[in-house]
Structures are given as structure tokens and as C-alpha cells.
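As described in the Methods, two query proteins were run sequentially through the folding procedure within a single session, without resetting any intermediate state between them. The first query and its resulting C-alpha cells are shown here.
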Amino acid sequence: MLFLAVFCGFLAENFREHKVEEIREKKYMQALLSDLRSDTALINRCKAQITYVINGHDSLENTLEIAIDNPTFLEKLYYENTVYTLNDFSVNWTEGTLQELKGSGNVRLVTKPGVKEGIQKYETVKQWCNDQHNFSNESVLRTHYFGNDIFDITYYKKYNDFIQNGWPETIYEPFENVKKYIADNPRLLTNDKIILKKYLRLVNNEKGQMIIYRNYVESAEEEALKLINTINEQYKFKTQ
């Protein structure tokens, strides 16, 4: 009888611990869903920003080629150099729940089919994004530093004042709306066509790195949406 009582007590305690861990698992998954929805919103914002800048690089490359022989395009060139080459966008991932799961050793609580695998895939693609962003950022810096020997910063004063006063609503105003803030008749620090062609190549490379980064970000979005669907299906959460 004593053995049976101890055994039943063990079963009851094991059942209680199992239910507690099941509740904790669901709470973690609810928190992870919130993080994933936050990430998808951040991803969509980042994609829109990057696409804007990538398209701007096309315009900048065209303007630069024209401005090499036509100084009347220098105002637009100054504008596009600032707006399209000096911005570096990235996704600031919502890491709270995953960091807590890993830091506390509670990844073991994730037992539903496909969820742990989905988390691993998502983490992998996020790392690809971060690695590619580093390459993109290096490209932005190379273009920026090389451009310092081409563009005279004194011509930017009015425009920089405009950016400071208009941020963030008007930062992406088209050239026609803000050209009055560019100094009249700007000039380049050099008209050496070889140097300008090198700068054009750097601009093109910067665009290429951003396109690759956007592709990885889109892959991260795809994995995030798959993981959201898997969690909702496996834990019977109501979709939002």
C-alpha cells in the first residue's frame, strides 16, 4: 500500500509538472507570435525603404553620367548623393522571446511538430540577413568616403538644415520639392572623369549589395510567416 501511495504521488506530481510546462510552452509561443508579428511589420518597412533607395540608385547613376559633362545637373546630383547613398536600412529584430528561451534553457519546452525546426530556420535566415547587412554597410561607407573627395559639403548646409527641421516626414521629398534647399550653382571638388567613373562603380556595387540584402529580408519574412502559421496550427491559437 505504501509503495502504491508513493507511486500514485509520483504520477500526480509528474502530471502536475507536465501541465505546468505545457502552460509555460503556450505562453512562450504566444510571446513568440507577438515578436514575429512585430518582425514582419519591421521587415515590410525595411523592404519599402530599401526599394526606395535601390530605385534611387538607378536615378543617381543616370544623373552622374549626365552631370559629368553637363554641370546643370549638379544640383540634382548633390541631392541624390545625399538621399540615396548615405542611408543604411536594416531590420532591428525583436529578439526578446527567443533570447529568453535560449538563455533559460527552455527550448526543450517546445515540443510541437515543426515548431522547433521553424525557429531554427528563421534564426538561420536572420543571421544571413545580418551578415549581408554588414557587407551592405561596408559598401555604403566605401561610397561615402570616396564621395568626400568629390562633393563639397559646404553646398549641403541648407539641405542639411532642411533635413533636420523636416525629419522624418519630409526626408524623402522628391528633388523638385526640395531643390531650393540645395546651394545655387554647386560644383564638384574634382571633374576628373576617371574618379567620377570609379564613384559610379561604387554606387552600382552599393545598389547590388542592397538588392542582395532585400532578398534575404524577403526570405526572412517568408520563414516568419511559415512559423506563425505553424505555431497557430499546432497550438490551436486563433489567427489574427
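Immediately afterward, the second query was submitted; its sequence and C-alpha cells are:
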Amino acid sequence: MNFDLKDKTALVTGGSRGIGFEIARSLLNEGAKVILCSRKQQGLEDAAKALGNPDTLTLLPAHIGKPDQVDALFATIEEKFTHLDILINNVGMNLITPGIADLDPGLWQKIMDTNLSGTFLISRKAALMMRAQGSGKIVSLSSIAGRKATPGMGIYGIAKAGIEMMTKVLAAELALFNVQVNCVAPGMVRTNFSKPFWDNKELLNHVTAAIPMGRIAEINDVVNPVLFLASKGSSYITGQTLVVDGGATAI
């Protein structure tokens, strides 16, 4: 599939592994210049080796939940690239949490800082650049956990629901500047992150029983919709969340 992303400059957060890594790989294969961002330099270097250390890959470590590090990240991007065509908000973390009444506020803050506040801080800086240049694509990764209360994933779901509303607000604010802002909300995806679930046959059968297509998502099931929303093929689509769940939320 050709998404025509040649020479586009794309920033992928949380791109050193999992879905973010595969998004970065696909962007590179489509001819984009990719800025890979993650907290740990070693993780970025390992990812670069796995990607073959292409000349079109730049590694920039940053903790996206910390405003000063986000400011430094974008100062480097502005100096090195002068513009940014695509932002992929992929960073996220999930911890099994108790109910809200029993939750420690520190744990709430940790999950919110990484998922919601980090997406805000990065999107804000990208929006300033894209608004000034008169074009851009912002694509965030959400989850169907943001649409249905799920035991043990409540705080993660609240953060992801916030990302979907942020997508709508940003889309409305940036529409006249030719910047499209969208979101992809997967169900369970076969990654190392979710391996404890899909590697257990009983749990996997329980999960797939609720999916009309009868299987969980493979990584490319998520990557391709992200690339579509980052391409010119989606130029009249903004403020939307594309649910990628094999029909799980349709029933």
C-alpha cells in the first residue's frame, strides 16, 4: 500500500518498541524522515539498529510528560528540520489499577502524566509549528478502553477518553490552518505489552469470543490506519477516532 509520505518529516513518540516501532518502520519504508522519541537513549539506539540505522532516522530522547524536555525536543526539531509534517502520539503506559475509590493519587498522576498530559504537551508544540506552516497531521493512539469501563484499566481508560476529546478540540481549532487531527483506538493488539493476555490460551479465548472477527489485532492492523490518517488520503478527515477492534464495540 502506497501512502505517499516521501520526504515528509514525522515525529513518533514511544517509537523504540511495539506499535510505535512498527509505525516508525513503515514511515521510513514510505520515504519519510522519522524522528524517533523515547525516554531512554539505549532503547532508541537498539531500535535504530533493528531498523538498519537509515540516514533518514533521527534519535531524540525525551520524557514527554516533562515540559522542559518537550521544549528542548522541539527546539532541536525546529533547528534541524525547520518544519514538522506528521506527529504520531504513540506513548502510553498502563498499569493494573484498583477502583477509583481505592486508588493512590500518585498512581493516578503517573498514568495521567504519561498518557494524557504527555500527549497534550507534545501536541501543543506540534500544533504551534503546524499552524505557522499551514499544514500538518496529528494522529494519536487511543484504546477501546477509553469507551468502555474495564476492570483494572479504569484510569488508563479515562486518560484515553481524554485523548479522544483532545483530538476533537484540536481538530476544531486547527481546521482552518490545514492541520488534520485524528485518533486510532485499537482493541487488544498482539504485542509484547499484551503478551500475558494472548499467550494464555484461556484468556485469549475469552477475549476473542467477544470479537466478531474472532481474533485479536496484529500490529499492521493498527499501523496501516495510522499511516492512512498521516497521509494526504485523509485530508478531509479531522476530529475523528477510527476504532480498530475487529467489531468488538459494534455488538
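The chain has one domain: 9-245. We note this only descriptively and draw no conclusion about the first query from it.
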